[in-house]
Amino acid sequence: MQGLSALLLLAAAIPTSNAAVTWTATPFNPAAVPLAVRSPYLSAWLPQGSGAALNAGWPNFWTGTILGWAGFINVDGTSYNFLGVPSVPSTTFTKAVQTDLTITSTQSTFSMTAGPVDLTVQFLSPIEPGDLVNLSLPFSYVALTAVPNDGKSHSVQLYTDISGEWLSADDSMTINWTTTTTGNVITHISQLENQTLFGDINNRMQQGASYYSVLNTPGTTYQVGQDIVVRAQFINHSTLTNTSDTNFRGISDDWPVFAFAHDLGNISSLSEPVVISIGFARDPAVEYITAGGAVQHRSSYFWSRYATIDDAIATFLGDYSNAVMRAKAFDTKVLTDSSQSSMPINYHSIVLLSIRQAFGGIEITISKDSNGSYNTSDVTAFLKEISSSGYISTVDNIFSAWPLFLYTNPLIGKALLLPLLEYQAAGLYSNKWACHDLGPQYPKATGYPNGNDTDMPVEESGNMLIMTLSYTQWSNDTSLIHSYYNLLNQWAQYLQANTLAPSLQLDSDAIAGPLANQTNLAIKGIIGIKAMSEMSFTNGDNTAGSSYNTTAYQYVEKWQSLAMAPGGLHLTLAYGNDSSWGLTYNMYADKLLNTNIIPESVYNLQTSWYKEKSGDLQWGIPLDTRHSYTFTGLLRSRRTLQLEANRHTAGWEIWTAATVTDTSLQTAMVNMVNTYASGQQNNEPFGDWYDTTDGDTECSSSVCFKARPVVGAHLALLTLSPSNISTGPSSNTSGPGSGGNNGSGGGNSTTPASKSSSASPIQAARWLLGFTAATCFAALSSA
After folding, report:
1. What is the per-residue pLDDT across 719-740, written as a single tens digit (0 to 9) for each?
2. How far apart are CA 776 and CA 270, in angstroms?
């Protein structure tokens, strides 16, 4: 089509920078650059959509509040600012000039020029899916290297500091601090004076401490004090005083900062990196309700290896060179997979920008035994619904991010499913369908004893069944099916009675409000029933397997007749509303599971319709044809958001692209998301809900769809690539806690819908990170 061809040409011509940008960027300049992104509470970004350099604005927390982080380099007595926008009276300094920005899955690297010296500032947030200790460490690196650019020798000193803004968005809060010199590490520790266990206010944790650390090498000095005093000390003297202000006070009361300086001496070649770690840690991390209603305090997994936080920091800093090598291997694997010939052009750019953000929304935890030792066989993970509500372990958010976990390590997906399965199998949830989340405020997973969570019965039941089967297929681990078969069967029975013609209810796009007879929601439930058929066979319940299989195929046939618009041109948004239509992204689950219950003719039909509707659209195909959506009190604390037509969800665009049968359309759809990601229309961390008319992230005074872990959805195409798919379960291997006491036993008499490939992504992850199969599974296995 003429419009589609024009769009492909436009996407191919997208520049890597706009007129305001004077540096090169690879793959492009995003709206916000991830700096230190490791957890819901360590999430630092550079807002630079309008073309701001590293030293043209302050880093922000994902909410948009400032995180004071300043950096200077002194060269032969001349001071240059390279990080943040500090004002230091009675001093003289100039701005370093940014020349390059390179972003990978794990790193954001800035190249700067400070007169006769070039400075590289590398922000590394490690992602190591095969090592749960390293993956759960809430620390990031920043590494600084300098090299003369004129062939001469120069005296160079480096400086960085952070402020108390890393602890709270409320600048009036009183903080205290200490500086430790344990072993060969210097650490600035700062915390709120008054702490609240599991307290989350305005998305900032009221418990725990910030840790800013360096190796105590010759030439390293430190200082704690008022910002303008400490910074002036370095600018004027190129060193710090090794002293600490003892006047604990409010964050904005003479702005205490925690600083380090490093004298590199006279350098004539590339310096060794100055490595700094930044982190925010707390213990315990999550409150979780267990069988019988007892509340359990769970710790971050990394505590299973380290006796103290000092041990963790010392190991983290000492491991930097190895961490860089592992990060480069991970980055290379992701780039190779997302750039292969079968992938749309520019797809790799979306994937690279999504991975840190998605992993930054989860935390991996373990429990303690009665003797106080950590139980590494009891591994659970929790996801925060960042920006849109603050719920803990929202099922449809996990479902959205699911492709990321399948691709990187399915056992992380299992750890996310386990607390949901355990909670409901224990009888702590009164409804017959799957719950929406584990609690209204992260990190309190205390559930809903009255079953009064947000009602998404078909949505979440279908999600849980689809995720459980896909985990089994990708991991060859049937323990979830065996352990929770009765619960899974309960949800399938609910779907059997309710999914063909869903009542007035919400789906994952809850902001659009409830709608009856949703075509896209109905097919999710039908695929869920088919998934239960496969799981029943796996559990030895062949009668149920055959019955569910028959139901699924009968329902698909009826669904087509109910959802088809007159003339057979497209599927409707809702039965009977013939002029309506939308992205039927849930059909991706049929591809993912290889269940093949949707006829190819339906995929072809929708492909043709999307091609017609794509026209000359630049930012994406609208999610559906509804107008003036209202965000009502039915969801998310009675927040209200008025939406116009043409709203769009990036993850669902990618999922829909994964289902189309025309490669040119798939490429066009991916490029529309890439246009948004690189379009610099805002300064927000990768938003997943935006306006297709102007590419702007959707926000109101109370909610903004940004920085959410749901961008893991963007890896959907990687889960359909033959090189990344395994062949289905062949043995009953246990992963994290195969708990549950409601399984009906039975053998693996029938393999679930299988995939035709020789290598699984979990095998790839083990190879990539240097772990044997036994080591990787042992980290997440139960006795």
Report:
1. 998 777 643 333 333 334 444 3
2. 37
Neighbours of 299 (CB within 10 A): 18
With beta carbons less than 8 A apart as the criterion, state whether 219 and 174 touch: no
Average pLDDT for residues 742-764, to the nearest whole number?
36
DSSP string spanning 299-322?
Answer: EEGGGGT-SSHHHHHHHHHHTHHH
- pLDDT score, position 766: 36
Domain boundaries, the chain: 24-317, 340-777
List the beta strands (DSSP E) in 465-511.
none
CA angle 270, 275, 281 (to 5 degrees): 165
What is the per-residue pLDDT across 206-216, written as a single tens digit (0 to 9) for each?
999 999 999 99
Structure tokens at 283: 């213990």
Contacts of 43 (CB under 8 A, 6+ apart): 36, 37, 61, 62, 360, 685, 707
β-pairing verdict for 220-226 and 243-244: parallel
How far from 118 is each of 94, 343, 541, 776, CA to CA, in Å? 14, 36, 67, 41
pLDDT of 646: 54
For residue 722, the model assigns a pLDDT of 74
For residue 186, give the H/E element and its range. Answer: strand 185-192
Q: In sequence order, which residues have a C-beta less than 8 Å from that of residue 547 and are 6 or more positions away? A: 533
Res 472: pLDDT: 98
CA atoms within 13 Å, Cβ hemisphere of 217? 15
| CA distances from residue 421 to 57, 411, 481, 483, 491 in whole angstroms, order as listed | 44, 15, 11, 9, 11
H or E element that contains 670: helix 663-678
Tokens of 727: 């062949």
Residue 782, pLDDT score: 41
pLDDT in tens, 22-33: 999 999 999 999
Give the angle subtended at the CA of 397 by the CAs of 518 and 327, to the nearest 5°. Answer: 140
pTM for the whole structure: 0.90
Residues in the chain: 783
Predicted pLDDT at 699: 59
| Pairing between β-strand 209-215 and β-strand 274-281 as defined by DSSP bridges | antiparallel
Question: What is the token pair recorded at 696?
Answer: 């702007």
Report, at the CATH architecture level, how domain 340-777 is classified.
Alpha/alpha barrel (1.50)
24-317 sits in which CATH class? mainly beta
Which run of H or E residues covers position 229?
helix 227-237
Residues 715 and 354 sit within 8 Å (Cβ to Cβ): yes
Handedness of CA 478, 480, 485, 490 (dihedral sign): negative
DSSP state of 291: G
| Largest Cα span, the chain | 82
CA angle 760, 358, 515 (to 5 degrees): 100
Phi-psi region of 286 (alpha: psi -120 to 50; beta: other; left: phi over 0): beta
Alpha carbons 508 and 456: distance in angstroms, whole number = 8
Asked whether 598 and 660 are in contact (CB, 8 A), the reply is no
Q: What is the C-alpha to C-alpha distance for residues 161 and 663, in angstroms, rounded to an integer? A: 49
How far lies 206's CA from each of 200, 210, 592, in Å?
A: 6, 11, 40
Q: Please name the amino acid found at residue 259.
A: A
Phi-psi region of 563 (alpha: psi -120 to 50; beta: other; left: phi over 0): alpha
- The answer to whether 68 touches 163, Cβ cutoff 8 Å, is yes
Q: How far is CA 66 from CA 19, 47, 161, 252, in A?
A: 26, 10, 14, 12
**Cα-to-chain-centroid distance, residue 151:** 43
Count of Cβ atoms closer than 10 Å to residue 701 Cβ: 8
Minimal CA–CA distance to 474: which of 406, 523, 417? 406
CB atoms within 10 A of CB 288: 27
